[in-house]
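ok trying this again, last paste got cut off
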Amino acid sequence: MCDLHDQHEHDHETATAGHPALSRRRVMQLLGAAGVTAAAMSADADPAMAAAAESADTDGSYQAPEGLAEDSAAKRTALGWITSQADRITGLNEEIWELAELSLREWKSSLAQADFLKKAGFQVEFGTAGFPTAFTATYRHGSGGPAIGFSGEYDALPGLSQKKGVGHHDPLEYVHDPYAPSYGPGHGCGHSALGTAAAAAAAAVARAAERHDLPVTVKFFGSTAEETLVGKTYAVSQGVYDGLDAFLDWHPSTANATGWGSTTAMTAVTFTFLGVAGHGGTPLGNKSALDAAVMMATMSEFLREENLAPSGRLHWVINNGGDIPNVTPEIAEISYYVREGSPARVQVLLDKVIAVSEAAAKAAQTKVSHRITAACWNQLPSRSFAELLHDNMRQIGPPEFSGEAQELAKELQKSLGLPEKGLHAEIGALNPPNPVFMGGGSTDVADISWNVPTVSMGAALAPIGTKMHTWSTAACAAAAPGRAAVLAAASYLAATAVDLLTQPARLKAVKEEFAERTKGVEWKTALPEGYEPPMYEPPAWFLKQTGQKWPPSNITWPPRRVVSQEQFSSLGPELAPQK
């Protein structure tokens, strides 16, 4: 995530924190509390949730199968390549961590990852789906083999700058402003490690295929803007992932775990209010767009009791609220992430948020418009894929955390007021998803999962009890914890992919389950008709180096200007002087 903190990882942490798995009685209580009926869990209502619920373990009898992952010469080659290239792999993670580039502007980070794959024999093409910093790297050996995809990301988050390996909050980049001090960007979701491990896994599989003559097409998708859930959702709608037989995904986490639960569907929407500027000392007649944004934020909070189910999430930020108190803000923008268990439920909640915006605009005598910046589905589970991946994780073992890594983790936990448990140094049990979906994070990988069999897993990079999207994760991502997590994650992904090549029956089972789960379901992008993805104009040097032209054909450039044409508010007829 990135925005995603996988539900199966959360469930694992809850279990290891001393809370038992949900009992049938507790499940029924939660079903009642959430207003969920058996009918609501049907495939017609929500195929992804039904898929997870149908295979939920309500009596505790599930045992993760063993023996699915098999030792092979090809797998040993892949894992051996990762070990032999450990310095290069961890060095790439550290390079991207140092760059800390924001979504849609990962100029140097994308080049670094693409260069790594070029040296591994991949053909690289930039500009995937029109995004300047997205690329597709392809390696082919032989003909007639399966097409295996890997997911790479490399965007940082704003405000999460942190010195590497430091156990207390100490931003690497502090932005001094006497009115608004802030921090620079940082890899508080660990995407420097995410993209690096996935690239290493793709390269390892390519090496194994070459040495052992395994027909395969390995495709690595360097994806931009995961933190805003823009890159993959749009790329899927443009057919970028068509033709794949399987797709492997991972994310830094606080646990080493996989599963087949779902995620929340999400729509990201920005509301723009337009008023009339004026001097704050003579405010009569001014129209404050900020007043409208504040009223919207306040009113939307009142949705929580009667309109927000336990499976939903609603969070917002005012990303443009004016510049100085003595100028009434003429333009203000507030952005929301609206999450629910399915796209249909997201739409119901989104309609209520839009209604709130209209009420706020009317009360503040301003105009309001909104634009959807991203929208994704909830992830489609794959039990057979998760079981194969888990067996590989179990056989390979947890990340090899050094004493230095554990010491840093405990320092961070102490700094954050958490129990000093260090890093998760075991492979989490594979457990069926809880039958009651209680919400959580979102991922643009979800849209891929409806088009190709997909598996996701987490590897421990951050200390137990901490969260993604924090400076503490940034402290770990390229330090000792991150170095161990990157190598482990690359090994888990590569080993699982090799099994798909050497054991055709495993790939067949994964594809058959996918066909069954998607039977009768027509995936359609949640993005609105006519959607144009947000983009920044690249530097000339980047365009030249990647062989691209600006603008791409799928956007309008320059974008439409947002300018207020509102008039001052009337106070009514002038009052007659008193005599």
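PB: full thing came through this time. The first helix runs from residue 7 to 16.
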